[in-house]
Amino acid sequence: MGLLQEIAKEYHTPILSNLRMQRDLKWKALGYLYFYADKEHHTLKEWADAVGYLLGCEAHFDSYQQVEDSLKPFSIPIR
C-alpha cells in the first residue's frame, strides 16, 4: 500500500483528493506523516510524492531527517 493510500485509509476517505482539498483533513494528514513511526518503510520518492501532493507543490528529500524536519511545523496540534 502506498503512503497516500495508507493515510486515506487512516482517515476513512476513499477519495485521495479529499486529503488535499479538505483543509482540516490535510493538516491532520501532514501531522500523521510527521509522527509516522517507521519513515524508512517508504522510499524518499514516496515521501516527496505524498508531501508534495498534500501541499500542492513539488517536494524533494535527500534524507529521512529532511522529511522529518520539513514536517515538523505540522506536529503542532490545531484546534
Arithmetic mean of pLDDT: 93
Instruction: Give the count of helical stretches.
Output: 5
Catalogue the unreliable spans. none
Q: Distance between the terminal alpha carbons, to the nearest Å?
A: 30 Å
Helix proportion of residues, in percent? Answer: 55-70%
Approximately how much beta-strand content do the residues carry?
under 5%
Gross morphology is globular
Helix and strand string, N-terminal first? HHHHH
Q: Give the total of domains.
A: 1
Over the alpha carbons, how many angstroms does the gyration radius reach?
Answer: 11 Å
Overall structural class, as computed from helix and strand content, comes to: mainly alpha
> What is the count of β-strands?
0
> How can the largest sheet be summarized?
none
Describe the protein's architecture and organization.
By secondary structure, this protein is mainly alpha-helical. It has one domain (3-75). It contains five helices and no strands. The protein has helices at residues 3-10, 17-21, 23-34, 44-55, 64-71. It is globular and about 30 Å long. The termini are far apart. The model has no long low-confidence stretch (mean pLDDT 93).
Short description:
The protein is an all-alpha fold and 79 residues long.
Question: How would the blueprint of this fold be written?
Answer:
Layout: H1 3-10, H2 17-21, H3 23-34, H4 44-55, H5 64-71
Identify the notable features of this structure and list them briefly.
single chain; 79 residues; mainly alpha
